[in-house]
């Protein structure tokens, strides 16, 4: 049995504001094995981004236990790669420099690693391009490569393909699975796309809002590569959908500006 890379127990996170308190996460428990690919799905405001930010070390105002390789999370670090919906590249840097970050490409080891990552995310020939010359899908592949540079223990992806068109999205899902199969990086992938959740995951975590909590965790026991048109895929998709449809939408949106 693989070791648990991530252990979350009794995790609570409440935001206080003059308008009232919002419990973004209530009693979350989740264990993620080394090399596992987990997708998190749930309606807007159920705490998906909050959970990812806590694991990333970007939010420490919680109660409960969050351990990465048996150690409490202490701020952001290279152990945790984070990928946002927008690529967040430096516009004045080339693709290869965006990936290398503060490491020098004159270092032969860095050069080799960056070249390896560029091949992995299928951007050969675009090393010297600038972000403005890239499509949205290409830019997101640069941010994936950048997050992988120092072999993070866990890759956290917050609706990374949410802004892309359906074809680009399907392509990037293939790219991500290819990366996962080659590197076996542990991944926590947030999406509100049911199809994406089932296509990528070994387990789908379904969350409910108000307060944000885990409703259920469904294993997706389908071999890779998966065929969306296959009966077994469609059956599992239906199963996730039926769980998902049980999720009650809040009648009144009490806290304005819930994260989308
Ligand atoms: P999701 O990513 O699932 O859409 P979020 O994690 O962004 O949900 O938000 C969960 C809940 O916490 C929402 O009700 C949201 O309004 C609230 N929330 C998130 N961040 C903050 C914040 N910085 N201050 C106050 N409330 C917040
Ligand atoms: Mg979010």
From TrEMBL:
Ranges where the ABC transporter domain occurs: 6-234
UniProt GO MF annotations: ATP binding; ATP hydrolysis activity
SUPFAM superfamilies xrefs: P-loop containing nucleoside triphosphate hydrolases
InterPro entries to which the protein is assigned, alphabetical: AAA+_ATPase (IPR003593), ABC_transporter-like_ATP-bd (IPR003439), ABC_transporter-like_CS (IPR017871), ABC_transporter_ATP-bind (IPR050166), P-loop_NTPase (IPR027417)
Keyword Nucleotide-binding on entry: yes
Keywords: ATP-binding, Nucleotide-binding, Transport
Domain of life, source organism: Bacteria
Protein name according to UniProt: Aliphatic sulfonates import ATP-binding protein SsuB
């Amino acid at each position: 049995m693989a070791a648990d890379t991530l252990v979350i127990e009794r995790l609570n996170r409440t935001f206080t504001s003059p308008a009232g308190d919002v419990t973004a996460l209530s009693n979350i428990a989740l264990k993620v094995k080394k090399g596992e690919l987990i997708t998190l799905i749930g309606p807007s405001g159920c705490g998906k981004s909050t959970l990812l930010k806590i694991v990333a070390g970007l939010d420490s105002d919680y109660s409960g236990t969050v351990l990465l390789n048996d150690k409490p999370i202490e701020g952001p670090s290279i152990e945790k790669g984070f990928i946002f919906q927008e690529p967040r590249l430096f516009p004045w840097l080339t693709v290869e420099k965006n990936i290398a970050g503060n490491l020098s490409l004159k270092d032969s080891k860095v050069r080799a690693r960056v070249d390896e990552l560029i091949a992995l995310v299928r951007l050969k020939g675009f090393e010297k391009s600038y972000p403005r010359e890239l499509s949205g899908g290409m830019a997101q592949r640069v941010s994936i490569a950048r997050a992988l540079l120092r072999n993070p223990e866990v890759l956290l992806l917050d609706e990374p393909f949410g802004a892309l068109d359906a074809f680009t999205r399907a392509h990037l899902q293939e790219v991500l699975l290819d990366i996962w199969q080659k590197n076996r990086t542990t991944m926590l992938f947030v999406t509100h796309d049911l199809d994406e959740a089932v296509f990528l995951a070994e387990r789908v975590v379904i969350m409910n809002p108000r307060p944000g909590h885990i409703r259920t965790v469904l294993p997706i026991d389908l071999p890779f590569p998966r065929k969306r048109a296959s009966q077994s895929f469609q059956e599992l998709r239906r199963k996730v959908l039926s769980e998902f449809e049980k999720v009650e939408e809040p009648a009144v949106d009490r806290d304005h500006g819930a994260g989308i």
